[in-house]
């Protein structure tokens, strides 16, 4: 059945005006992949300039040897996940990754259209490369499954979001960038989206043939043990219950029969050392 039949008349009109390059087969998202990419460019430029102004963005073109080492190590970890053969928009999205030097923030996030950010606080907190890869896989899944753009579409409406993607609404762009980075009240994903991101992290990590496919569960276990965390990051949102998430991820890993033994932590240790 034609999905367009469920869309309101104005949406069909917009589609027919070719404002969107694709209005089909996108799971309720009126935004096209091209619009995701445009929105991601806008949001990542905003995130970059915000943290650059605070002196916290580690620049990829830095001549500092430790910064260069940090990116070499981080890229190896991220690329294993991206090259797992499981990332749907592997070639369409740019998939950049940047480090924000903020040891007090335990977070990572991905914008729509595939721009990943890692706070140094998360790297310092975690001890296991598989757990770190699990968090990255979860965030990559939110972008790849288009959860973030779906949620933004719900929160702001299609017209405003398209205006932001086209660079015509700097005020809303700043708000969205701050929401994604968690410095405002964060973007709240649905329970289904969180579960799908957890499940997808198992597929991504299994596809690496390197990491324990239940790496994200290891992360939640550590977070539960250190429950004194005052402001939980996006991936630790209270829904679904973290205990259920651990069980769900581990059950899925068992069903799939994928490897659950840890990989060597070489790249992660190098990354940690470079951020000291
Ligand atoms: Zn999440």
Automatic annotation (TrEMBL):
Required co-factor(s) are: Zn(2+)
Keywords assigned by UniProt, alphabetized: Hydrolase, Metal-binding, Metalloprotease, Protease, Signal, Zinc
Q: Name one Pfam family in it.
A: Peptidase_M48
Give GO MF terms, alphabetically.
metal ion binding; metalloendopeptidase activity
Per the entry, the cofactor note is:
Binds 1 zinc ion per subunit.
Record InterPro entries: Mito/Outer_Membr_Metalloprot, Peptidase_M48
| Entry annotated with the keyword Acetylation | no
Q: Provide a GO CC annotation, any one.
A: membrane
Q: Where is the signal peptide?
A: 1-25
What are the BP-aspect GO terms? proteolysis involved in protein catabolic process
Q: Does the keyword Ligase apply?
A: no
Q: Where is the Peptidase M48 domain?
A: 72-252
Query: Family assignment?
Result: Belongs to the peptidase M48 family.
Name this protein carries in UniProt: M48 family metalloprotease
Q: Which organism is it from?
A: Pontibacter cellulosilyticus
Write the lineage as a comma-separated list.
Bacteria, Pseudomonadati, Bacteroidota, Cytophagia, Cytophagales
């Amino acid at each position: 059945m034609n999905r367009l039949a469920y869309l309101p008349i104005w949406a069909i009109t917009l589609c027919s005006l070719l404002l969107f390059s694709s209005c089909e087969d996108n799971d309720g998202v009126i935004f096209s992949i091209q619009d995701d990419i445009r929105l991601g460019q806008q949001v990542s430029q905003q995130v970059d300039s915000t943290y650059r102004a605070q002196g916290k963005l580690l620049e990829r073109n830095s001549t500092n040897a430790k910064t260069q080492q940090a990116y070499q190590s981080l890229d190896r970890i991220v690329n294993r996940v991206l090259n797992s053969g499981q990332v749907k928009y592997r070639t369409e999205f740019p998939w950049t990754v940047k480090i924000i030097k903020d040891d007090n923030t335990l977070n990572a996030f991905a914008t729509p259209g595939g721009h990943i950010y890692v706070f140094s606080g998360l790297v310092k907190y975690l001890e296991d490369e598989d757990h770190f890869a699990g968090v990255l896989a979860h965030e990559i899944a939110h972008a790849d499954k288009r959860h973030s753009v779906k949620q933004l579409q719900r929160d702001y409406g299609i017209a405003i979001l398209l205006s932001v993607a086209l660079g015509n609404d700097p005020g809303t762009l700043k708000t969205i960038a701050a929401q994604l980075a968690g410095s405002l009240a964060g973007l709240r994903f649905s329970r289904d989206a969180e579960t799908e991101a957890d499940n997808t992290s198992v597929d991504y990590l299994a596809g690496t043939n390197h990491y324990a496919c239940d790496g994200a569960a290891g992360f939640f276990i550590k977070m539960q043990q250190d429950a004194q965390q005052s402001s939980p990051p996006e991936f630790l949102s209270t829904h679904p219950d973290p205990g259920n998430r651990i069980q769900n991820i581990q059950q899925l890993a068992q069903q799939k029969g994928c490897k659950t033994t840890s990989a060597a932590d070489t790249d992660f240790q190098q990354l940690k050392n470079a951020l000291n």
